Inverse folding.
């Protein structure tokens, strides 16, 4: 079902289901992924694959961390990220008293681009974790002491944006807004044009090569329709993935950040919870313990369609300029007159 | 929602784990200052890209950008020649337009993951999707260009042919220009951040191509408009594509100066420059030099599109192209917010 499309505007406002044409609909549902309690078990990845019959996404060894899934795509709708950092987690005592050996470099930690130090390092600890383009030896007091260590784990997913770039650009109507305010691809309509893939500021959608169509998280549309919660949230053993009415989740997330701040974990911040951000707020938002880019998330994502009205105006001007230049090239009536025209744009 | 029935003590609807504050139970106290977030420097997740790279294939899609531009601008040239009685240029423009748009439709359908479903493009009309607008544009322009060429070649139905020629000339520039919105309306930094110049680069490149084709197909007596369009278009293409790059953030601009993009864009400038010089120097005296210049201009225009296409690919794979401009934007905003009230958040 395709709702009326507001000409040239990509903004949906607080109620995307109504903005996209539903007269009556349930409350907007979403995910709040609280990464502070994620233990990196990947049960969400497995549950998602099992429930949605998502095919294997490659059995590769990345060698960078416990993350061998790499990123969201056609065959990965939940992705657990692992980040090792030389930072304390709140006031935690990590119990690593091997002062001379870096807990990170001890395991032969190596960065993907090969800059990491491959063996045990005894003097200058090599901080090569993400969030660390830092040169060896720069880690000093406060954050990054020699025994400081924390693991960040985060389960990534489609953000089900309020202003969804994929939904805006889909030329077939295969991508649509559900009554729950989520964004879903109809696999019987998608013709695999691939426009939604680069239109997503988060790199969520991708083409399944053997099938030619685009696939992504449906927020378990089928389960929601039965009053059930999505498979990943259902299986999450620590409630890192919380499913519910978006308004309620936002309140809960606000309280949670306060709780963590009070506990001394000042790194805690919410990501994509605000309706004022570049995607109008997301249906799936996160509590992070570092900058978004450390988790591979864009720090200030903006839906590309926000600039489309300006682009259409410029396209009109450019088309007019081409027509004018064409006409001007016939202006010197003489058949062999060599007056060169400079009328282009 | 979000309750788990599998709890040992029957703690239904209660999730104590959710409230866990790891790291709070402390052996060691730290001051607040010590725990502050470090100042900004480039960070990413193991150097992995943030966005997914476009799945559009080469040569299908950059080839389509070139062919669509060639067709659209050739329709303008063909119609002008039709009106001013330049027979060879009129015929050339119309036939090139029809051929190019037919080929480009093949390329477009071939690039689909499910080519048998290409008609789904006409299921809806969405102004928020340049591809949807383009599909409808092509659905109107393609038949007009083909009818214009058919009537020109056979001499049949001249009135219908005139109407089709005029229709194709009006729609042609839109066909040449909309593809700029198509690639700019993505999260690919090298494309999106150049969205102000992209439409003008695309129509200039289209004029270059159509002028080049006109130089090949028309007689010396007829080729003056093609020559002028080619010289104006080629000059604008070189100047405007440099302006586009100039606007970009250095981390984004990089993509235009690396790998295939760099090679194609260097070739584009060289070929277009050569074509302009050739067309100006001897385009009106020698049919052979005119045709050779025309070929160079066509190749230059094609290289421009392939270069822009690969620059987009490159920047989609580079996390810095996505992250750095956004991080700087965020910091500029929070320092602006911090100045009056002091409530900026990092």
């Amino acid at each position: 079902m395709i709702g009326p499309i507001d000409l040239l505007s990509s903004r949906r406002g607080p109620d995307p289901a109504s903005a996209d044409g539903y007269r009556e609909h349930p409350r907007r549902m979403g995910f709040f992924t609280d990464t502070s309690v994620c233990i990196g078990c990947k049960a969400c990845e497995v549950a998602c694959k099992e429930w949605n019959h998502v095919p294997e996404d490659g059995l590769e060894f990345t060698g960078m961390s416990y993350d061998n899934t790499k990123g969201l795509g056609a065959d990965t709708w939940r992705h657990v990220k692992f980040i090792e950092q030389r930072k304390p987690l709140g006031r935690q005592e990590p119990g690593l008293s091997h002062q001379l050996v870096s807990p990170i470099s001890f395991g032969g930690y190596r960065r993907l681009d090969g800059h990491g130090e491959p063996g045990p390092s005894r003097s200058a600890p090599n901080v090569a974790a993400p969030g660390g383009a830092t040169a060896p030896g720069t880690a000093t007091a406060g954050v990054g002491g020699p025994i400081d260590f924390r693991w960040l784990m985060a389960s990534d997913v489609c953000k089900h944006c309020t202003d969804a770039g994929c939904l805006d650009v889909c030329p077939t109507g295969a991508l649509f807004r559900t009554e729950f305010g989520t964004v879903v691809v109809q696999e019987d309509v998608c013709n695999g044009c691939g426009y939604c893939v680069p239109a997503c500021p988060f790199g969520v959608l991708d083409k399944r090569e053997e099938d030619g169509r685009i696939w992504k998280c449906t927020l378990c549309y089928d389960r929601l329709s039965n009053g059930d919660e999505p498979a990943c949230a259902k299986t999450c053993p620590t409630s890192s993935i919380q499913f519910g009415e978006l308004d309620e989740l936002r309140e809960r997330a606000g309280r949670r950040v306060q709780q963590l701040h009070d506990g001394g974990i000042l790194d805690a911040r919410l990501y994509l919870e605000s309706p004022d951000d570049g995607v109008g707020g997301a249906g799936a938002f996160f509590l992070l313990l570092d900058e978004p880019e450390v988790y591979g998330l864009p720090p200030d994502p903006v839906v590309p369609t926000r600039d489309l009205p300006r682009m259409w105006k410029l396209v009109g001007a450019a088309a007019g300029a081409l027509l004018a230049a064409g006409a001007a090239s016939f202006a010197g009536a003489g058949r062999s007159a060599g007056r060169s025209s400079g009328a282009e744009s | 929602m979000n309750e788990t029935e599998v709890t040992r003590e029957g703690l239904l609807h209660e999730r104590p784990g959710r409230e866990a504050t790891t790291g709070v139970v402390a052996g060691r106290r730290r001051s607040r200052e010590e725990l502050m977030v470090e100042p900004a420097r480039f960070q990413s997740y193991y150097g992995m890209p943030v966005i997914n790279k476009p799945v559009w294939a080469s040569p299908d899609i950059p080839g389509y950008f070139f062919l669509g531009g060639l067709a659209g601008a050739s329709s303008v040239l063909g119609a002008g020649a039709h009106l001013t009685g330049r027979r060879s240029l009129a015929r050339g423009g119309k036939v090139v337009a029809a051929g190019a748009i037919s080929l480009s439709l093949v390329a477009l359908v071939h690039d689909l993951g499910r080519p048998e479903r290409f008609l789904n493009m006409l299921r809806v009309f969405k102004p928020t999707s340049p591809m949807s607008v383009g599909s409808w544009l092509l659905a109107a322009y393609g038949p007009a260009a083909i009818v214009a060429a058919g009537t020109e070649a056979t001499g049949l139905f001249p009135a219908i042919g005139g109407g089709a020629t005029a229709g194709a000339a009006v729609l042609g520039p839109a066909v040449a220009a909309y593809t700029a919105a198509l690639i700019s309306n993505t999260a690919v930094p090298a494309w999106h951040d150049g969205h102000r110049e992209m439409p003008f680069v695309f129509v200039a490149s289209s004029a270059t191509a159509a002028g080049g084709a006109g130089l090949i197909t028309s007689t010396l007596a007829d080729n003056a408009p093609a020559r002028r369009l080619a010289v104006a278009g080629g000059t604008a293409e070189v100047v405007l594509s440099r302006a586009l790059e100039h606007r970009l953030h250095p981390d984004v601009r990089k993509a235009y100066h690396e790998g295939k993009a760099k090679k194609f864009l260097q070739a584009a400038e060289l070929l277009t420059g050569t074509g302009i010089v050739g067309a100006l120097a001897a385009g009106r005296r020698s049919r052979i030099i005119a045709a050779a210049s025309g070929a160079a201009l066509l190749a230059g225009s094609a290289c421009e599109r392939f270069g822009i296409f690969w620059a987009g690919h490159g920047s989609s794979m580079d996390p810095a192209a996505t992250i750095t401009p956004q991080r700087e934007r965020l910091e500029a905003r929070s320092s602006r917010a911090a100045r009056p009230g002091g409530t900026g958040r990092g």
